[in-house]
Amino acid sequence: MDDLANDSAVRPLLSEARLIYAITVPLSTAIILANLVIILGISCNRQLYNTPNYFFLSLLVADLCTGVALPFIPWMGLNRPLSFSSCLLVHIFPNFLFLAFLFNLVIVHYERYMCIVSPLHYSSFWVHRRFPLVLLAVWAPPLLYASLPAFGWNNRAGPGWNGCCSFNDTGALGAPVNCSTVVAAVAAPVGSECCSYRRVFPNAFIYLEVYGLLAPAILSIAGMTGRVLWITRGQMKDICRLHRSVATRGGGQASEREQRLNLRYTRCVAAVSLTFLACWVPYIIYIHVCVAFLLSKETRGNSTTHIVLSCTGIGSMAVMPLVLGLANRQYTDPVRKLLHKLRDRWRRRQDSEDMAL
């Protein structure tokens, strides 16, 4: 009977692990490799050694770390038996990497935004003059805020932590839906406690992070992007007006050029809108669904839904720097040239072998 109970407890947990790794491992591998390609492209081109690319390089490093931590993020919403110090580590470290990634993304957008809004004063911009201080500002505050639970702002002494992985809601022995370990079947390690996000992050901490850090950062990125598109629209109108005046003086028409400019601008708006929707909307949905569930009084939940939302939400957001990097040919030229050389060398080898035959 005990073996049957153990098997019934292990099977759903193994399926959860398979689902997590089936989604996160390919996505994490793609994010890591793409970041390495762009980092290599920036490192091999000395013309890119300037402040804007240093900021973007910092963003790529944060995105690379997020890709490494991605397989572990879905486990944060599942209960498991760990010592409290280990529980703090597995919750604080991914949270720090994520916040650092978000801060780096904001400063990259802000730097490019100021380049377009104020191009004449761009070189004397304070971000360029205080470059090391800005880098410290995008890495140190996330670390300090994420570490607050380790300094005492946690819920370790809260009620209801005894046996949260060992007992279900009815009090009978069994594994809850959101318990990720085989506590019902295998004895927990000596000295371990029930590791839950509720023990590490108090409600006030979650509210402050979501609505005090994440929401303003996302809104600021959306606002700067919209402002840049509006400025681009105004500049395009000025260019079209100049084309009309030149065409009128020359006796011709500039309608074809205007149509090309309008089409190019429409494509730009469509690309930016689709990128924003694809990268941010899944994460926004994930955040609000998780806040609704994580801050609810219920301890049980659909672990499959949490796993899918967390993987797609964090993964889609981590793709944003890759879209910015791969769209710049300067970042990918060294890797492209290397691939061309390898392809030409392989073709020459094939030709020489054919001639020998």
TrEMBL record:
Its membrane topology, per UniProt?
Answer: Multi-pass membrane protein
Task: List all membrane-crossing ranges.
Answer: 20-42, 54-76, 88-110, 131-153, 210-231, 269-295, 307-327
What PROSITE patterns does the database record attribute to this sequence? G_PROTEIN_RECEP_F1_2
- Entry's Gene Ontology molecular function annotations: G protein-coupled bile acid receptor activity
Which InterPro entries does UniProt cross-reference here? GPCR_Rhodpsn, GPCR_Rhodpsn_7TM
Residues annotated as domain G-protein coupled receptors family 1 profile: 34-324
Record keywords: Cell membrane, Disulfide bond, G-protein coupled receptor, Glycoprotein, Membrane, Receptor, Transducer, Transmembrane, Transmembrane helix
An annotated GO cellular component of this protein is: plasma membrane
Query: Where is the secretion signal located?
Result: none
Superkingdom of this entry's organism?
Eukaryota
Q: Which SUPFAM superfamilies match?
A: Family A G protein-coupled receptor-like
Taking the record's annotation, the residue ranges forming a coiled coil are none
Decide whether keyword Disulfide bond is in the record.
Answer: yes
Cellular location of this protein?
Answer: Cell membrane
Q: Which PANTHER family would you find in this protein's record?
A: G-PROTEIN COUPLED BILE ACID RECEPTOR 1, OLFACTORY RECEPTOR AND ADENOSINE RECEPTOR
**Name this protein carries in UniProt:** G-protein coupled bile acid receptor 1
Source species of the chain = Oncorhynchus mykiss (Rainbow trout)
Q: What is the lineage of its organism?
A: Eukaryota, Metazoa, Chordata, Craniata, Vertebrata
